[in-house]
Amino acid sequence: MAKLPQSVDDLVARFGPHPNYAPPGGWQDESRGPAPRLVKTHCCFCGQQCGIQLKVRDNRVIGFEPWEDFPFNRGMLCPKGVKRYMQSSSPDRLLQPLMRAEGGFRNAGWDEALDFTARRLRELQAKYGRDSVAVYGGASLTTEKAYLLGKFARVALGTRHIDYNGRLCMVSAGTAYKGTFGVDRAPNPWSDIPKAEVIFSIGANIGECAPITTDYIWRARDNGAKLIVADPRMTPIARNAALFLPVRPGTDLALLMAMLHVIIRDGLIDREFIDAHTTGFELTADSVREWDPKRAGSVTGVPPEAIEKAARMIGESRRVMILHARGLEHQSKGVENCEAVCALAMATGNLGREGAGCVMVTGQGNGQGGREHGQKCDQLPGQRSLTDPAARAHVASVWGISPDELPGPGLSAQEIMNAIHAGEIKGLLSICFNPAVSLPDANFTREALEKLEFFGVIDFFLSETAMHADVVLAGSLQEEEEGVTANTEGRVIHIQKAVDPPPNARADSEIICDLARRLGQGERFAFREPREIFEELRRASQGGVADYYGITYEKIDRQMGVFWPCPDLQHPGTPRLFEGGRFFHADGRARFMKLAWRESGDPVDISYPIYLTTGRVVSQYLSGTQTRRIGALLDQYPQPKVEIHPRLAEQRGIKNGDWVRVTTRRSDLTLQASVVRTIRPDTVFIPYHWPRERSANRLTHRTLDPRSKIPEFKVSACRIEKADAPPPAGNGDASRRDG
Amino acid sequence: MFGMEFYVDPSRCIGCEACLKACEECETHRGVSMINFDFVDRGETIATAAYVCWHCDDPTCAQVCPADAIKKYEDGVVGSSLKPRCIACSNCVLACPFGIPKLIPEAEQMMKCDMCYDRSSIGKKPMCATVCPSQALAYVTPETIASSRREKPVNTFRIGAQTISTKVYMMAPAAIEEIAVDVADYTWEGEYEVVPQAF
Known about the structure:
The structure holds 2 protein chains of 2 kinds.
Chain A: H1 8-15, E1 37-42, E2 51-57, E3 60-66, H2 79-83, E4 98-101, E5 104-107, H3 110-128, E6 133-137, H4 143-157, E7 162-164, H5 171-181, E8 198-202, H6 206-209, H7 213-222, E9 226-230, E10 243-245, H8 252-265, H9 271-277, E11 278-279, H10 281-288, H11 293-300, H12 304-315, E12 320-324, H13 326-329, H14 334-347, E13 357-360, E14 379-380, E15 384-385, H15 389-399, H16 413-421, E16 427-431, H17 435-438, H18 442-451, E17 454-459, E18 471-474, E19 483-486, E20 491-495, H19 508-518, H20 530-541, H21 553-559, E21 562-563, E22 590-591, E23 610-615, H22 631-636, E24 641-644, H23 646-651, E25 659-663, E26 668-675, E27 683-687, E28 716-722
Parallel strand pairs in A: 6-7, 6-16, 8-9, 8-12, 9-10, 11-22, 12-13, 16-17, 17-18, 23-27, 24-26
Antiparallel strand pairs in A: 1-2, 2-3, 4-5, 4-18, 14-15, 19-20, 20-21, 23-28, 25-26, 25-28
Helix pairs in contact in A: 3-19, 4-19, 4-20, 5-14, 8-11, 8-12, 8-14, 11-12, 15-20, 16-18
Chain B: E1 5-8, H1 18-23, E2 36-39, E3 48-51, H2 60-64, E4 70-72, E5 78-81, H3 91-95, E6 102-104, E7 109-111, H4 117-120, H5 127-131, E8 137-140, H6 142-148, E9 152-159, E10 162-172, E11 179-180
């Protein structure tokens, strides 16, 4: 029974989001003077993981100071980073466990809430089988929590089904890099970016989604580098591009194949590198043979001359950095897209050197670390495969179980939701994930959540998803528990505990261990603090690809981060991978792949002739659970708008600010138009941070990349028309008032 | 005083507004942001510009203040209005050639960028320039700017008949010596001298 226990209006009135505008005590409070304690830690938003100092007084975070000594961001922060301290004092913070009751949620004691959770999970498993319950994790969790959750699902619950919201982030890149290079990590430290001669940013809105990386690119430009930007929209960094390629949504692969075509045709390949360090070049060469710039131009909507020019700029340079992100990865051919990027770097020998490489720009806070140690449905700690007998034996020995007790690979995040909808999965325990906003086809997600027989949530705010829960266990903010994360470079960094959780909320890892105890596995979860979890994680990862054995909290503090792999305590870490052309496959070589063009899973046709693409704005983070509660961030972009080119707007009689209806094969949405010349005329854009009647994900579809299982957020087919009136406010749509 | 100067380069700006948010976090600003920020024309372009007070060597705002509420400090920073003196008359708001000062009605006082004087006067960077992710606002040494940037710092502006030199620098193309914003500054009236005031 996971329908909402009371109306959305009533839930929002009690649990928010209520935007928080002032620091604790208000702006004029004298206690805002010099604080007794500055805690050197990191921002909780986004994969940049900028260093920041939190100002703490009386167990409260009251402000921040830039941390200029931290080498990655040197004090720089985006607006989210500047205001991140405010979430600590949000009025919506959950202060004790909640249980569903007649007509709403009631406060509950910890024993009652935990006992009930453990009992219901066990009841469902007894009735329907072990795999009838699933666990959802998140990539904003520290690596310790992510590791613990993977162990919890497999050891304490014994279910196959654990996956996480990183599945909506960069798994396409991860799959491609593992297949191509044998390792899933951005191979270059960011300090390589300013050393490049050519920077190619494809499907990466750096200025809004990785803001501090902008300075790295501008420094390259100051050094004379040329910037190429491929995106359906002129994103903020495009203002200084030497070449802008306005690629049609979902056609990046054609663009990349044509660039490879030109590079091979014109003899711009690095034959020596290809022969010495790679295999399968012919597979890629055959794949791109028919993809001349003219053919690609008609598919991508990019002028053939521009494709030629981009290919030559890359082919003629010895120091190229390629940056890619969700634009490339959120497609039903996301893996092929990234394999084509890797091929471009390999074919031109741009890997493993200063200023030369291809990197994925991670989106989620611990997007890198959160995917390395076992909350992915197919992986064990250390980026090990769950189907590799040696890996199973190693991890089982660390966990003190027999390898036979380890479940096999389970379903991915969207597949878990599909299985819930189909009635195959009956129970769900979720932490750090707001699928009601972040999964595609949001109406489907809501229907699925309503079918759950038991739904338990660990969270610090009552997210739109948590509103469906039977039990909500009040967990901890990032600043309330020590741990590590890995930033976008693969630099493992130290998250410091700045304050205690409120008296009747608990640290996330404590909650998970307590549940494990109630499930009869207490001795395998006898961790007293995150450091003990990290010690076990070090051993579990030892010998794996993501080897953390040589990393300690103290070493991180001393070195301002340690890049994995770091196999022993004397090892300094590995900032740059593939030096000397050594890759992580057994033969030491990188692999070129066969590339094949496919249409999107939601193709445009005469009824739905316009491309819809979705993404982020600079002031909001992911599903907005956290950033829609910070007033200054909300005010910067209070409501989602539809970006639409004047040519399309004129055809449809739409003016800037008009209400327009966007309709896809799933649903429709009525939002205000933002008429801008900075988007392709055949494409509209909607940011996805809002719930319900403002949710871009009501429009998106559930087509997955067959290998990475990432949903195709970046390409949907839609039609757009002027709406007669704004959608009615109220009538259950309290969501409109949270902005 | 500490060898750092302030440099503004709108061509680096990504419009993220971190500067606006950071400005209000400064101990002396307390919730009031004094950054001037514009979307140049969002319908036409992604271009944005964030800038601070230019801190004129001979500040017009101070000259026109009837209450003598605006002071220029020894290091060249022009302060916000002094609360006990400011009469909220808006003379400075109208007179500033750059449109910087803002009357804050709730405070009954003009407030403007004071380069985070609590910070910059003790050798720390102003909040905005510390956090700026694109370093469109930068507070560094002249040597750093000279060695790291393509553009050249300029601090002489011609606005109509007024030539203004400032503490804060604008990054400009290398060939430019001063920045003029009036078309009249670029016109040529032939060999016969024309009195500009006649127009």
